[in-house]
Specification:
single chain, alpha+beta, 2 domains, elongated
Length: 279
């Protein structure tokens, strides 16, 4: 049977061929100080091979050290492997970012000129942990059926649309954890007003006002809606803070069932280019 180490050895050249053109692993490793002295690990390619053996190759620290020695890559102890990989965290994160950035946007789904992307996060816990230790943030391109951004943070890293550079023409969709007015405005600003969002907020997640500046009574508005399945839309403003311009949004509501339960979404799409719906 072929083990994980031999598979990694046989296919590493293919990994290098899939890297973005112009990416120099040695330069990147030195820039982020993943390699400071070339005594144990000679170059960026060697560091990447060790990371793949330990990670996707599922080798233990002991087996990774033995494999690296057998392949003539590096002579490292178990703690030495761990230290090198700890130092390589930024190196690997930037490598993933550049791989994702090199991919072209996905196909336009339904709306010409627009790219649909989903943002979400998931919690990761250590063995035996009773809470969240890390959080993985992802942006999934529906047209391409693949991720356009991946990011790992500790338990304090909040879900936010501003993770990952917004792409002009995209519509990014998030759940209620993403309904925070300051973050939504930064997302729009970073795209130069050329990326939009659809989020599903809680009833009091956003301080909404009507265009004239008066507070918007969401509960009163819901109570006055007819008990049907038609879609309702209001153009509002989401307050950011004192002396900060409000964010123009659209509140879109659609009844979930005939008993009056409603689903709501807030979207930003300037000039009425497209209309989003709460699911």
């Amino acid at each position: 049977m072929q083990d994980a180490a031999s598979v990694l050895t046989d296919r590493f050249s293919e990994v290098l061929e899939r890297l973005p053109a112009g990416l120099d692993l040695d330069v990147l490793a030195l820039e982020v100080k993943a390699i400071q002295r070339r005594r144990e690990v000679a170059d960026g390619a060697a560091l990447l091979r060790i990371a793949l053996a330990r990670g996707s190759g599922r080798l233990s620290l002991r087996h990774t050290a033995a494999w690296a020695s057998m392949q003539g890559i590096a002579e490292l102890s178990n703690p030495g492997i761990k230290y090198r990989l700890d130092q390589a965290a930024e190196f690997l994160a930037i490598l993933v970012e550049r791989l994702l950035a090199a991919k072209t946007p996905g196909a336009q789904l339904r709306w010409p000129g627009r790219t649909l992307r989903l943002a979400d996060g998931t919690c990761v816990s250590k063995p035996g942990s009773t809470g969240t230790d890390w959080r993985v943030h992802g942006v999934f391109d529906l047209g391409r059926s693949g991720f356009s951004h991946l990011e790992l943070t500790d338990q304090h890293g909040p879900e936010a649309l501003e993770r990952g550079a917004p792409y002009p023409g995209e519509i990014q969709i998030g759940d209620r954890n993403y309904a925070r007015a300051p973050v939504l405005r930064r997302f729009r600003a970073r795209s130069g007003g050329r990326a939009d969002f659809i989020v599903r907020p809680g009833w009091n997640a956003l301080p909404l006002t009507i265009p004239a500046g008066k507070p918007f009574d969401l509960i009163g508005y819901l109570q006055c809606l007819p008990p049907d399945l038609s879609l309702h839309e209001e153009r509002l403003r989401a307050s950011i803070g004192r002396n900060e311009p409000a964010l123009a949004v659209r509140l879109i509501l659609l009844a979930q069932d005939a008993r009056g339960g409603r689903s709501d979404a807030v979207s930003a799409a300037p000039n009425g280019r497209q209309k989003g719906q709460g699911a």
